[in-house]
Amino acid sequence: MKVPALSPPPRHDGPARHVPVVRSTIVERRGRLDYFAQGARAARAIRRKCHATLILLVVAVLPAASWAADPSQAEQAAALPDLSLYHLEGEWRTQEGTKLELPDLAGRPRLLSFVYTYCEHTCPTIVARLKAIADHAEGESASNLQVTLVSLDPGRDTPERMKAYMAEQGLDARDWLMLHGDPDEVLGFAAMLGVRYRPMGDSDIAHSNMITLLDAEGVVRYQSKGLDDDPQAIVEAIEALDDPDGA
Amino acid sequence: MWGVFAAGLAAFALGAGAVVPPDMAPIGAGDYTPLYKEEGEAREVHVEAFLLDRLPVSNADFAAFTREDPRWAPDRVKPVFADAGYLSHWQGHDPMNPEDIANQPVTNVSWFAARAYCRARGKRLPSLDEWEWAAMASEDSPRAGDDPAFQARVLDWYGTPAFARLPDVADTWENFWGVRGMHGATWELVNDFNTALVSGESRADSELDNSLFCGAGAAAAVDPSDYAAFMRYAFRSSYSATSSIRSLGFRCARDLVELETTNP
After folding, report:
1. Within the 189-228 window of chain A, which residues sit less than 8 Å (CB to CB) from chain B?
2. Which residues of B touch A195 (CB under 8 A)?
3. How far apart are CA A204 and CA B217, in angstroms?
4. CB-CB under 8 Å, B194 with A190
5. Is A18 a domain residue?
6. Could you tell me if residue A236 is inside a domain?
7. Which residue of A has its CA nearest to B38?
């Protein structure tokens, strides 16, 4: 679907929050990321307990059942393509405080940007653009898309702060995810995507205005380098994910 | 001699009981002027004391690492961590043979691989500020950045063809801190290389593109006459975390918070 021309970059008072909330279409198939975003570890723990009980009952018959049903991080990573960014090791937290590792993000296509919640310059523009792109893309991949904002300021962007930011911006937790990581992990993730950033004084961070599209396995399918790039190209890249030959 | 003096000074500051690993040199705290600074901020950046490898990581060092962790072997590394040139100079050579390339600085390693090596040794890559501060030392001064003779010598090496045989890691001059090969062997990776902000258009780098970088307009060169620093800055801007470059090596660092200021 054609993206209408985006409005000029918002001013510092943040009109981005007035942009309508992303798609109303919720696809049940989107499950995997929601599962992780809402408590993957807890869910796994429960599942492991169930498995443990089952194993006690059938340990002599089918000991491998639980392994197959609950693959380790290493197994998950091994199943990913060599070009998947999700091979990067490290532990992250969502805006809910839930721990996750990058292989946990597999399963849904993803728009990824690096921002920080106190940013008053281009970050509101980036978020507004991400909203517009997510709103206008059509098809199965678009319905399953999750937008992910990685904080460049983990010192101030605690999970609590990220959650409040998402509420301020009207970002639905089903379709949006924020990630908080150790500064060195953030550096590695940013470097992997070619994102450059540098603290400027005590409160600002100069950073690349880059938007990256990852497919469901974490492979880069498109990168928009700057705000002058046509967002329609990202929409088309998302829709192209539905075409196996074009992806 | 000055290196021994610096090490002694640092060891004194460390106090009894503190042990500096023999393969690392204590770098005293100090202030240096980075090439780029934000508007309105002090020209100088304070660098805390830290430990830095006395020598660049050699081919033999790195070969031992790839045997310990085969995920980083040339035939196993994932393309998301290193490009096709990764350790390509090992082809036809024995990286463990001292008669061959064992003692030369390892190059053609990506930033990811260098980070993994340092982590496996309980170390880390030095920050850009740490590296620049340690590299400012001549044989007899920790702060030779303003010395025209020192600058000329550094630039002279920058003008040396990159395809010349690399010197063995120990065959380079030792600076004030007891560190060898900061200039004259290879360029070296730093942890925060991606803090160098440039636009895609090299001619526009003096005025960074605000459509590409949030806040980029505030970055400005402090000392445009420091041509060597410009070259390093431009070089860091040119590679990615997966780049494997024949003239780019690395060494590792460690924190040393116990060491107080020894900056003369």
Report:
1. 190-192, 194-198, 200-201, 204-209, 225-228
2. 194
3. 12
4. yes
5. no
6. yes
7. A200
Residue with tokens 């399953």: A144
A163 touching B, CB under 8 A?
A: no
Q: Which residue has the tokens 């492991």?
A: A48
By C-alpha distance, the chain B residue nearest A80 is B78
| Chain B contact set for A220 (CB, 8 A) | none
Residue B159 belongs to a domain: yes
Please give the Cα distance from B86 to A104 (Å, whole number).
28
b/e code A41-75 from CB counts within 10 Å (16+ = b): eeeeeeeeeebeeebeeeeeeeeeebeeeeeeeee
- pLDDT tens, A83-141? 999 999 999 999 999 999 999 999 999 999 999 898 887 888 889 999 999 999 999 99
Domain count, chain B: 1
Q: Which helix (H) or strand (E) holds B67?
A: helix B59-68
Is the Cβ–Cβ distance between B254 and B125 less than 8 Å? no
**Residues A201, B209: C-beta atoms closer than 8 Å:** no
Phi, psi of A181 (to 5 degrees): -140, 170
Structure tokens at A131: 């909203």
Give domain status of residue A183, yes or no.
Answer: yes
Q: Which domain holds residue B186?
A: 2-58+111-234+250-255
Question: Distance, in angstroms, between A23 CA and closest chain B CA?
Answer: 27
ipTM: 0.80
| B25 occurs within a structural domain | yes
Which burial class, exposed, middle or buried, applies to B173 when counting CB atoms under 10 A from its CB (0-12, 13-18, 19+)? middle
Q: pLDDT digit string (tens) for A153-180?
A: 999 999 999 999 999 999 999 999 999 9
Q: Could you write out the three-class secondary structure of chain A?
A: CCCCCCCCCCCCCCHHHHCCCCCCCCCHHHHHHHHHHCCHHHHHHHHHHHHHHHHHHHCCCCCCHHHHHCCCHHHHHHCCCCCCHHHCCCEEEECCCCEEEHHHHCCCCEEEEEECCCCCCCHHHHHHHHHHHHHHCCCHHHHHCEEEEEECCCCCCCHHHHHHHHHHHCCCCCCEEEEEECHHHHHHHHHHHCCCEEEECCCEEEEECCEEEECCCCCEEEEECCCCCCHHHHHHHHHHCCCCCCC
In a domain, B213, yes or no: yes
| Inter-chain Cβ pairs, chain A and chain B, closer than 8 A | 92
**Inter-chain touch B213–A123, beta carbons under 8 Å:** no
CATH number of the domain that residue A79 is part of: 3.40.30.10
Contact B195 A201 (CB under 8 A): no
- At B33-72, the pLDDT tens digits run 876 655 555 668 899 999 999 999 999 999 999 999 999 9
Residues 127-146 of A with CB under 8 A from B: none
Residue of chain A whose Cα is closest to the Cα of B212: A226
**Does any domain span residue A87?**
yes
- Residue span of the structural domain in which A108 resides: 28-240
* Position B260 in a domain: no
